[in-house]
């Protein structure tokens, strides 16, 4: 914890440059140094930042460590405020952290928040597909069905399900016998075999999105074929579904992204800067890897540090 290198070594030439590795490398080329001007705050992806009013010991401890890290980073650099950069589920995590801190602390210690393809609180279809048939991306060499039960134990899964705020009444799961929308989890989750306790937890979640109230830039890909409905014709969730596609970054549905942008942009009413940058043909994972999108991410970071 604290190192920008995390689980990847800069000396390991065989590793695949995913997540924020390329961003870190670009920053190091500009003179940033791990432990001096560049820091990392790895999190446990099984857990999810709690909704307001729902405590989480895991994230209470984690947020306290991040707060201490930010303060130490600032102290090491003439008490300057920091720039926070997060990608994917890390975006949800860091937004939860910022909203956990007192407003006076944010104004003192946070110069800019950069969210790169963050997981929108309004949810996205991919997490629901993983819930029904198992995740294909978690351990690529293992069949999704073998990972399904483990995936269903992750709090981060339940907190990223498609919400009515973005998906409305349009069916997300289609079968010959019944269609399910984001309003139908009371029927869908038992049909998937999830226990009563999990169903109650999902149904009790009250979606609330608070702008971070610090200068923020949100970048996301667009123009990539992205699943927005899945079809299990025989209602058999043990087989891979047919998919109906819409716009997005290949993972995040663009209408969910836009719903999130609308909520975050409310901070402009208080004259706090917010900017959304849509990057054509940038996928969810490669937005921080491909040259054309990585350059835009770096431009935002460097502009924030001007």
Tell me briefly what this model is:
37% of the residues lie in helices and 14% in strands.
Describe the structure.
This protein is of the alpha/beta class and 306 residues long. The chain has a domain at 20-124 and 218-224 and 248-305: Alpha/Beta hydrolase fold, catalytic domain (Rossmann fold, 3-Layer(aba) Sandwich), CATH 3.40.50. The protein has twelve helices and eight strands. It has helices at 21-29, 57-76, 89-100, 103-109, 125-133, 144-151, 155-158, 164-167, 185-191, 196-204, 254-264, 291-304, and strands spanning 82-87, 110-116, 173-174, 179-180, 216-222, 226-231, 242-246, 274-280. The strands form two sheets. The chain has a four-stranded parallel β-sheet with strand order 1-2-5-8, with helices on both faces. The chain has a four-stranded mixed β-sheet with strand order 4-3-6-7. Helix 5 packs across helix 6 (144-151) and helix 9 (185-191) packs antiparallel against helix 10 (196-204). The protein is globular. The model is unreliable at 12-17 (pLDDT under 50). It holds the Pfam family LCAT. This is AB hydrolase-1 domain-containing protein. GO terms for molecular function: O-acyltransferase activity.
């Amino acid at each position: 914890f604290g190192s920008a290198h995390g689980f990847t070594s800069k000396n390991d030439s065989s590793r695949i440059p995913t997540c924020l590795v390329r961003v870190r490398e670009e920053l190091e080329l500009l003179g940033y140094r791990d432990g001096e001007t560049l820091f990392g705050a790895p999190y446990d992806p099984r857990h999810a930042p709690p909704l307001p009013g729902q405590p989480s010991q895991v994230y209470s401890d984690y947020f306290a460590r991040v707060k201490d890290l930010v303060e130490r980073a600032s102290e090491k650099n003439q008490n300057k405020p920091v720039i926070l950069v997060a990608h994917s589920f890390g975006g949800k995590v860091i937004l939860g952290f910022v909203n956990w801190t007192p407003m006076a602390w944010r104004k003192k210690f946070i110069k800019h928040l950069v969210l790169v393809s963050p997981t929108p609180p309004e949810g996205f279809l991919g997490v629901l597909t993983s819930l029904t048939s198992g995740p294909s991306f978690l351990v690529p060499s293992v069949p999704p069905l073998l990972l399904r039960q483990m995936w269903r134990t992750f709090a981060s899964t339940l907190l990223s399900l498609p919400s009515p705020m973005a998906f409305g009444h349009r069916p997300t799961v289609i079968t010959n016998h019944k269609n399910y929308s984001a309003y139908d989890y009371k029927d869908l989750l038992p049909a998937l075999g999830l226990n009563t306790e999990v169903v109650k937890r999902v149904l009790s979640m009250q979606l609330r999105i608070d702008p971070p109230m610090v200068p923020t830039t949100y970048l996301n890909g667009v123009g990539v074929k992205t699943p927005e409905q899945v079809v299990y014709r025989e209602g058999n969730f043990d087989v891979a579904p047919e998919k109906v596609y819409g716009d997005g970054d290949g993972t995040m549905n663009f209408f969910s992204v836009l719903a999130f942008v609308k909520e975050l942009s409310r901070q402009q009413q208080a004259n706090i800067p917010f900017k959304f940058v849509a990057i054509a043909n940038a996928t969810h994972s490669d937005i921080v890897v491909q040259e054309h999108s990585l350059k835009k991410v770096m431009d935002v970071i460097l502009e924030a540090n001007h």
